[in-house]
Amino acid sequence: MAFCDPFKLTNYQQIFTRIDFRYFSCYIGYLILGYFLYHFVHLKKRFAFTIFVLAVLCTYVATYYLSLKSGTFAKKYYEYLSINVVLASVGIFMVCKDIMVKNQWVQKSIAFISKYSYGIYLSHVFVLLLLTKIGFGSQFLNIWFAIPYTAMVCFALSLLLTFLLSKIPFFGKYISG
User: Fold this and answer.
1) Model pTM greater than 0.85?
2) Does 18 share its domain with 81?
3) Which residue from 51, 99, 136, 173 has the least number of CB within 10 angstroms?
4) For residue 160, which of 174, 171, 176 has the smallest C-alpha distance?
5) Would you report the helix, strand and coil content of the chain in percent, each value rounded to 5?
6) Maximum Cα–Cα distance for the chain, whole Å?
7) Domain boundary residue among 72, 99, 126?
8) Number of other CB atoms surrounding residue 34 within 10 Å
């Protein structure tokens, strides 16, 4: 992600060798993009859903092809700032942006998840690394099933971890978001 690192100067690299500045620079673009999409962009749901589906299919096909070619899992198209991930994010955001839910159980579920969303965001990489370390995912499932299954398991475990951390007296709420 060299194109995304505004701190490429040698002096900064010598001082801050262990800090990944993408968390302070480029990923903020998703926040700005969300604000912009929410306030200024209006897409038809069908078009937004088509963008999402095509971006996800591109991710699947490109990952499958590159993984097959290299003989190992190729994660190039899973990077957070790859064009297909950005487009999938835009598509699903635009589909969900104006949805009004009337079902009480669904409303409560969304509120529960929303309460812990920042903690989920912070912990999901840790959970993914653990899942990878124990061989969970593509090692025991076909890649077409492993990706969504791993995403669902990672989400559930990240939510559980964040919820449990929030129960720690005094400072748990600060860790969980």
Assistant:
1) no
2) yes
3) 99
4) 176
5) 70, 0, 30
6) 55
7) 99
8) 14
